[in-house]
Every structure is written in C-alpha cells, then in structure tokens.
Amino acid sequence: MPQTIIADIDKDLLAALDARAGLLTLHAILLRYRASGVTAQQVAALLQELRPATQEGPLEDVILDALDMVTGWCTPQLRVWDEAGGEHAS
Predict the structure, then answer these.
(1) Which is nearest to 87 in space by CA: 74, 64, 70, 73?
(2) I need a surface site. Which of 18, 34, 78, 87 has the fewest CB within 10 A?
(3) Which are the contacts of 40, defined by CB distance < 8 A and separation ≥ 6?
C-alpha cells in the first residue's frame, strides 16, 4: 500500500484509478485533497509511488492524467493547484 495522505480520499483515488475513471472524476477527487489542505507535492509523490507497478499499461495512463492535473501540465480548467498559490508541484 502506498503512503497515506487522507485515508478516505486515498481510497476513492485508488478506486477511481482501478476503474480507469475519467478526467472529471479524477479532478473532483484531487479537488478534495486541495480543499483538505494537502499540497500538490504530497499528491504528486503518492501518484509517483503508484507508477512503477503500472508501467506500460492503461492504469499508468490514468495515473499520468491525474499527475498532469496535479503538476499543471493540463488545460487551465483541469489544473487543481495554482502556481500563484505557491502549491504548484515541480
């Protein structure tokens, strides 16, 4: 099991990843992390921790989509953490 940030949200994130959830579902879960005071760096670390076990598969693609929303490598509408807020993942 990867590191724990907020157990309830982690559980929802892992379920969404396993279900290959769409971008809007992932975005909603990531917004819950942000609203709970979790930083982009913490969520990025969790997602990066999940990647090695999923290399080269459809699950890795979903993890990378979520990571893009965390780090800001996505459209402004899907970006979860704001650079101006100093919580942008590097």
Answers:
(1) 70
(2) 18
(3) 34, 70, 71, 80, 81, 87, 88, 89
pTM: 0.85
Secondary structure (3-state) at 90:
coil
CA 32, 37, 41, 42 dihedral sign is: negative
For residue 18, the tally of other CB atoms under 10 A from its CB is 10
The token duo for 47 is 């997602």
**Amino acid identity, position 8:** D
Q: What type of residue is 82?
A: D
Do 81 and 89 meet the contact criterion of CB atoms below 8 Å apart? yes
Q: Which two tokens stand for residue 80?
A: 């979860």
